[in-house]
Structure formats: structure tokens, C-alpha cells
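hiii so my PI (J.) wants the whole complex modelled not just the main chain, which honestly fair. so below is everything: two entries, each one labled with what it is. i double checked the lines twice but i was tired so who knows lol
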Amino acid sequence: MKFSVTVTLKKDVLDPQGKVVQNTLINLGMNDLKNIRQGKFFEIEIDEKDEPSAKNKIDQMCKKLLVNLIIEDYKINKVS
Amino acid sequence: MKFSVTVTLKKDVLDPQGKVVQNTLINLGMNDLKNIRQGKFFEIEIDEKDEPSAKNKIDQMCKKLLVNLIIEDYKINKVS
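here's the output for the full assembly
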């Protein structure tokens, strides 16, 4: 089974990298840009047929390594 | 309008960062893990009411700055 995980900074956490990208895009002439925030993306393939159990394992991976729960949120989606 | 952009390395491009994450997860006991690849994620808010035109602007941002088209693929999704 294949899952995708998106990791984003929590709303109230500053995103300096995103701000730099935003300023650069505005300097390139993209004046309609209101806000941009950067995050991480993982594509995870797992050897497990049962969906709830697979999702649970992905969740464990997020909590143990992929996500800093203090400043980040994450979302798990099934791809295939 | 709000869009999300996911940027992933093309299939044949090596992903050393993903490999490190994969090895670490396996060392943590996640033996079912088959493959993991890392990418980037952007949440972009744009001041444009017309959807095709907004999408087109996001596409320009990707091509001009966010994505390295030689080694990366990208996907644009409307969020709201």
C-alpha cells in the first residue's frame, strides 16, 4: 500500500523559508501572491494489506521520526 | 484561492535523503517499510478569483522558482 504524508508547520509557527520564497516570487512579478508556506512531503510504500493497520504504522512513523509534533501538523492520505 | 503544490523527485533520480529516512525507520523496527521518498510541499494563497487563471499563475511560480524541472515533477491541487 502506498500513502502520502504532508507535514506542515502549525499556523502560529513562523516560516522563514516560506517568507523568502514569497519575497522572491513577488520580486519576480507575482503580485497576486498573498501567502505561501513550505512543508515536507513523503511518499511511503508499505508491505501491509490491511488498510487500518497500514495507516496505523504510517502514523507511528510520523510520530517517531518524520514529524516534530510541537511545531508541525501532518496529514496521511492513501494513494493506492 | 488556495492551492497546494507537491514537488517530488522524478522516478529515476536518486533520493539520498529519503534513503536515510528509510534506513532510520527500519532501524526503529518498521520492517514492513518498502520504500519512502521525500519531496516538498507548498501551500499557496493567491488573490485571483478565476480558477484557470489562478492555476496558470501557480504553474508559472512552479516553473520559475519552486520546481527544478530537470529532476523534479510537480502537481497542483486546488484546496479552496
